[in-house]
Amino acid sequence: MPAVGQYLRYSTTFDLEANRRVRVLAAALNATKPDGVREIYPGFGSVYVEWDDARLSNDRAKAWVDAALEAPEQALNDARHVTVPVAYGGLDTDEVAEATGLSAEEIARCHTEPEYQVSAAASVGQPMMTGVGDRLQVPRRKTPRTDVPALAVAVANEQTTIYPAKMPGGWNHIGTALVNVYDPHRDDPFAFRLGDRVRFEPKDGDPPAPPERRLLLPPEPQRPAFRVEEAGPLDLLLDQGRLNQAHHGMAQSGPLDTGAAWLANALAGNAPGTTLIESTLRGPTLVALRDVVVGAAGRGLRLYVDDEPVGQITTLVRKGARISLRPTGAGVRGYLALAGGIEAEPFLGSTCVDRIGLIGRPLAPGDVLGLALEPTLGHEMQARPQERPFHVVIRLHRGPQWSQEAQDALTSQPFSVTTGDRMGVRLEGPDVPGGELLSESPPPGAVQVPPSGAPILLLADRQRSAGYDKPAVIHPDDLALVGQLQPEERLRFVFVGDHPVPWFRDL
User: Fold this and answer.
1) Which domains does the chain have, with CATH numbers?
2) pLDDT tens string 74-131
3) Which terminal CB of the chain, N or C, has fewer other CB atoms within 10 Å?
């Protein structure tokens, strides 16, 4: 789905009145949301809106925003008052002490003095709070951590937050909350909502046990189709994505190679977005429990039936046969669709696995996959295998924080992949001008550049709020190329013009 995004911006610095107007506008936009809208994210100083321009034209999207701006102002929910116990002392306490001249005890005291406002939400309900006093203000880390501990209480500039789960992040860890702030089994999974007033109190103790993972596969499927004999490194259930949940901080998820996922479903006779399996590096080995029609696609993996290569073609798998997805060396991901789809319980409108959000898990030996619907067999299809490009060239649009200096650095020399996952791909190469800004929701395929100057290509499971420059955004048609990048693979960037609409509409 080609996505177009725009920031409806009230302020570039935090301001309580601007944040109130952001929340009011977001409520008006939600009340009149047309088909094709993918996200409405109220941030600190702007509302990020995103739509599928194949379903909602840019002109119609503008008319929708215009009408919301002219609508009578709606009353917001009354603020709740929340107290959070914290065991102070964290990974960055010593660095914060050195930067501020405060002792560990003074850091705790400075952090507990103010009353904070929840002004935005990041990953899985992560409360983004404002109100840190001047003495405790320190910038984000130059290079974000790949794993911040669950329930870490952290500060950056005038903001503080609690990380709901173990996840990447660039804030300074000074303590640990002693209550869970997110639980997918609760009727309301999120402990905080926008506008809440929060105080922290120092307390000795250990953090609570993390919430249990919410499973998506039923324990006994209605139409058993395959048993997992051997699992790959990362086999995930996915559909079209968990859309319109950005305001809760939930990842969009969905396939990284959308074209390959669409093709796999088409080969199996399914509608686009039907639940299937995305595999990384190597896929599962499955034993058929009935006759099943399948389709597989994606240049990273190839379908085998009883050790015979099949490829991208509508395939009838007989009961008792074994199928597997095996590496081709031309990419890292492949997709397997079952005719009728895979039976799974949706959470917040989607059957996508969200590992940080504790929604589902990778496939494991012994899992039984059932069909969501009894399939209606259609015509057979076959597709040519996708070949690995000899040179990987990624097209870029100018991003929200574009500069000529950043463009020149991104296009001057090749980059190489250091690490990558569903959240993003980290690159090494020329230093790119980057920096910090008031946190806002990054669009799909954003090229994020922290002060370290090393670009990160943000993908489907990216965090919903980030405070680093985004000088470029990957062309939607090239996101699949990024989703297939392998470690140490080299790539070049080329700019192909502006985003389809202006990134910012200042209000």
Assistant:
1) 3-70 (3.30.1360.40), 82-202 (2.40.100.10), 224-370 (no CATH), 392-506 (2.40.100.10)
2) 778 888 999 999 999 999 999 999 999 999 999 999 999 999 999 999 889 999 999 9
3) C
